[in-house]
């Protein structure tokens, strides 16, 4: 989670730095600035779409885990409580 938010903060700082660089150059034509704003908007839309998809997938996987019965050591669902044989009693002789 830490790396996730650190990455987003780093992208924000980098974007601000590029805006400062464009303003320092003082271009006669503002095409670079508007092109960069358009690119950032496109990347923002893509990022939002992926985040929404990831959270929907995460929430759905948690719901399906709650509905599934617990698995035993073989990977198959357990049918009931398993108990070890009582070793304090002698075995039945026939």
TrEMBL record:
<keyword id="KW-0813">Transport</keyword>
<feature type="transmembrane region" description="Helical">
    <location>
        <begin position="5"/>
        <end position="22"/>
    </location>
</feature>
<feature type="domain" description="Cytochrome b561">
    <location>
        <begin position="1"/>
        <end position="59"/>
    </location>
</feature>
<feature type="transmembrane region" description="Helical">
    <location>
        <begin position="34"/>
        <end position="56"/>
    </location>
</feature>
<feature type="compositionally biased region" description="Polar residues">
    <location>
        <begin position="80"/>
        <end position="94"/>
    </location>
</feature>
<feature type="region of interest" description="Disordered">
    <location>
        <begin position="62"/>
        <end position="94"/>
    </location>
</feature>
<protein>
    <recommendedName>
        <fullName>Cytochrome b561 domain-containing protein</fullName>
    </recommendedName>
</protein>
<keyword id="KW-1133">Transmembrane helix</keyword>
<keyword id="KW-0472">Membrane</keyword>
<dbReference type="InterPro" id="IPR006593">
    <property type="entry name" value="Cyt_b561/ferric_Rdtase_TM"/>
</dbReference>
<keyword id="KW-0249">Electron transport</keyword>
<keyword id="KW-0812">Transmembrane</keyword>
<dbReference type="GO" id="GO:0016020">
    <property type="term" value="C:membrane"/>
</dbReference>
């Amino acid at each position: 989670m830490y790396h996730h938010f650190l990455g987003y903060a780093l992208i924000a700082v980098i974007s601000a730095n590029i805006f400062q660089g464009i303003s320092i150059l003082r271009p006669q034509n503002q095409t670079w600035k508007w092109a960069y704003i358009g690119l950032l908007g496109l990347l923002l839309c893509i990022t939002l779409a992926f985040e929404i998809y990831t959270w929907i997938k995460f929430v759905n996987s948690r719901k399906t885990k709650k509905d599934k019965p617990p698995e035993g050591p073989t990977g198959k669902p357990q049918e009931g409580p398993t108990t070890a044989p009582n070793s304090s009693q002698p075995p039945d002789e026939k």
